[in-house]
Queue: 2 jobs
Job 1
Amino acid sequence: MALDPLVRLQAVSKVFSGGIVGLDAIDLDIVGGEFITLLGPSGCGKTTSLRVIAGFENPSSGNVLLDGRDITSLRPFDRPVNTVFQDYALFPHMNVAENVGFGLSLRKLSGTEQARRVGEALDMVGLADKLRARVSELSGGQRQRVALARAIVCEPRVLLLDEPLSALDAHLREQMQVELKRLQAQLGTTFVMVTHDQTEALSISDRIVVMNKGRIEQIAAPATLYDRPATRFVASFIGTMNLLQSRFVARDGERLRFAAGDLSLDASSETGETPAAGDTRTVGVRPEDFLAASEAAEGSAPARVSGVVFHGRTLRLHLELGQGTSVIVDAPRRADGFQFSVGDVAHISLRRGANCPMLSA
Ligand SMILES: Nc1ncnc2c1ncn2[C@@H]1O[C@H](COP(=O)(O)OP(=O)(O)OP(=O)(O)O)[C@@H](O)[C@H]1O
Ligand SMILES: [Mg+2]
């Protein structure tokens, strides 16, 4: 990346007592002003990464840099970093304004200045009228906003958010995603969020860091991760992806032609690698990139319908290609009334222009 990073993790490893590896030589550059999300399954090292950036955890090896300066041994409170914790960690005996102003009261600011900044922060999260409310009187969404206001009032360079929306119901969660994004754009502050919800990560982030077992699998913008996942793990973690063991046939310009049984597949390679003819690779195909027809066509393969699931605008077909290979196809609901039923044979082929990645391990 051309821009100098605001935060840089350099070969950061964290080994906990008992030899448990939390982070395994992570390299990560976070650019000033971006909304970056750490995404991955439970235990992959998301919280540990945040704690290392915040200074709550010392890396076993490697360095943390801020603006090019090594801050690895700097204490948490000496870093221009603030954290919004999953459980909000609000003070129950204090009212909203006291909670938000707590961080400021540790600094040498006049009472008027403190009150002004608390008011501003609460305004930004839409809680200006709750200044004197007790925390126990607030809804989950309102508590979430207080926690946010408390974190932004100190004007950190980096705001760390660990699963900030996980306690909210689905509807409120979606609303708060939009608000978080708006707040981040308004402040221009760098947000580093942790989630294990891929939909949330895709909808809110400028870039996503996909983590697996203490390592980074891929860092990319949401659309790139979706269209061009680099590994099988990323492909299967982001959205639904059919992973087909395929035989390499030939290269045709940028396209790599594969065959999975009778089915012809066109794939692209992120690395530029061209396999040898006859080599086996995994090709990823999104359910919407297959066509299902009642007649055979060139490059199509017959498949038996084993399940049909109503998805609103589309029907999700579960199909058996033979030799134990199942595929999922999202087919538009047909206006003419024709629909596949369980037991039917559908002829599936790749949609023209579909972008199917050839995946590494
Ligand atoms: N203080 C600790 N002592 C020992 N092991 C730890 C400690 N903290 C984390 N770990 C281990 O390190 C690994 C990474 O943990 P981490 O909390 O970073 O995962 P996570 O990605 O945040 O998972 P989750 O989605 O469940 O919150 C896990 O195997 C975890 O058990
Ligand atoms: Mg965690």
Job 2
Amino acid sequence: MINKEMLAEREKLALELAAKLPEISAAQSVGEGTCPLQWCLKLVEDARAISDGKSVMSRDGLWQLQLMIEGATRGQSGEEDLAVYKETLDAMELIGDAFTVKVAELLKANLEAYASEWDLHVRRNRCTSLVCYYDLYIDPAVCQGNGACLKAAPSGAVLGGAGMISVIKNDRELKNDAFIASCPLGAIKKCGAIKPPCPPAPVPVGSFGNAAGGAGGGRRRRRG
Ligand code: SF4
């Protein structure tokens, strides 16, 4: 049985927890290079970590929000999911306690401030910050053909040889920090919709982009 004292105690706790959350301005300006959706994901994860989980919204509501945001960062959501996300935030604002209402306000502020970035994630599976979605390429101007990336990649995913500029043939299994860090020169780079010019197959180090004016030997390729 929930009595008045218990309700008052819960509301007091909710206010204390709400005070630990960031200000609205932080949700509206997440900082250079930070993905707004990743910012929201961390907010919800942090909120779940400090929540007592005793109300429906602090337990199931926050969990649902986390799943929805994760879906948008992993290519598992569409426009209808975004609509459900907004409805969930509205419901949380309506029936939540001070803590979950503050979480909903922060997420809504982020959604409004970064509407185009949310749209880009959900509709096109693209991330301007190159955190959630990106492609990989090997910068032919940096690669020195030492072969370290070949050893770090599954067979056939990277082509190359001693003294040759390596070429990524399939980056599906390579999108991880360990592979990117496998190049001691930092030649393995992330890119978005536009991939910089790269040779289609391994060529000797120093040969790509030096002929005919050094434009890179190829046109920029629009992807996605
Ligand atoms: S990309 Fe880096 S690790 Fe791979 S061959 Fe070129 S320099 Fe070596």
